[in-house]
Amino acid sequence: MISNERPSPYGQRSYSAAEETLKTDKVQIERKTFVFTLKENTRGRFLRITEDVNGRRDTIIIPAPGLEEFKRLLDDMVKASTEIPTKSQ
């Protein structure tokens, strides 16, 4: 089991190959820590993004061929967050 995964209620996962870590970095934003890990296995490269909030972890995995599109969408969201006015409460 990979260290940032919880046991599955559906039984143990089997991985076809070992994963090699190519690069890792993390950022702390408010009470959340985000860990970005670029990995590679026999099926290819992928980015694993893990969010850790007080010990609770959630992870998404983005295959390397989708990273440019993911970055484009993220850039659009960053731009929108500065352009769209906040709603007054």
How would you sum up this structure, described in words?
By secondary structure, the chain is an alpha+beta fold. It is built from one helix and four strands, in the order ββββα. Strands 1-2-3-4 form a four-stranded antiparallel β-sheet, with no helix packed on it. Strand 3 and strand 4 (56-63) form a beta hairpin. The relative contact order is 0.14.
Question: What topology emerges from the helices and strands here?
Answer:
Elements: E1 20-29, E2 32-41, E3 44-53, E4 56-63, H1 67-83
The coarse overall form would be: flat
Largest sheet: 4 strands, antiparallel
* Helix/strand order: EEEEH
Q: What is the average per-residue confidence, as pLDDT, rounded to a whole number?
A: 87
Strand count: 4
Helix content: 10-25%
Strand order of the largest sheet: 1-2-3-4
Estimated radius of gyration: 16 Å
Percentage of β-strand residues: 35-45%
Please give the count of helices: 1
Structural class: alpha+beta
Low-confidence regions: none
N-to-C CA distance:
45 Å
Descriptors:
single chain, 89 residues, alpha+beta, 4-stranded antiparallel sheet, 1 helix, 43% strand
